What does this fold into?
Amino acid sequence: EVQLVESGGGLGQPGGSLRLSCVASGFTFSSYAMNWVRQAPGKGLEWVSAMSGSGGSTYYADSVKGRFTISRDNSKNTLFLQMNSLRAEDMAVYYCAKVFGMGILGAFDIWGQGTMVTVSS
Amino acid sequence: DIQMTQSPSSLSASVEDRVIITCQASQDSSNYLNWYQQKPGKAPKLLIYDASNLETGVPSRFSGSGSGTDFTFTISSLQPEDVATYYCQQYKNLPLSFGGGTKVEIK
It folds into this structure.
């Protein structure tokens, strides 16, 4: 079964750090670009970051650039999001999502269940 | 950046009604436009990719059309299980962007 499972969410302090993980199964992880998308409580979807299958290309939304780092370990079928300098506006459910097809950009055909990040002192 | 404007933001329709949602891009997005369904407490689900292609396993009552800046998403016969919020998303340019969502309810 094709599946993405996120973990690592929880309570982070303003200015603090959290590291999210997303473990993939059921497909050749290294062949596909992966993304992080977030959703603040009661709000819409916001794209956060993307990484190519090889890990050689990364992209960020302006709202997280310089604070968040996307990475992947293809030997462990795992995608990461290192979140530093957390702000109140980073509070959201974070989803990892697989790109449909071979490009870096495309539709998100597989989504994880999401992991909640709360930012509060 | 490409801004995606969805309308309406919410709608209420009867079972078996035809439902139409529109999405307008602030710049030409060619056909790089996808539609997702999100039920409460759940992750989004891909329904339509590249403006008009039905994702595998998605019922044929869902369809999409359009190109450039104007796109349409249609549910030909609304069913109770279609209660959800629907989002459009462009991937012509970075940053990727989503519409604000359309909440669909049963009257």
Chain A has a mean pLDDT of 97. The longest strand of chain A covers residues 18-25. Chain A has no helices and eleven strands. The interface with chain B takes residues 35, 37, 44-47, 50, 59, 61-62, 95, 100, 105-109, 111-114 of chain A (CB under 8 Å).
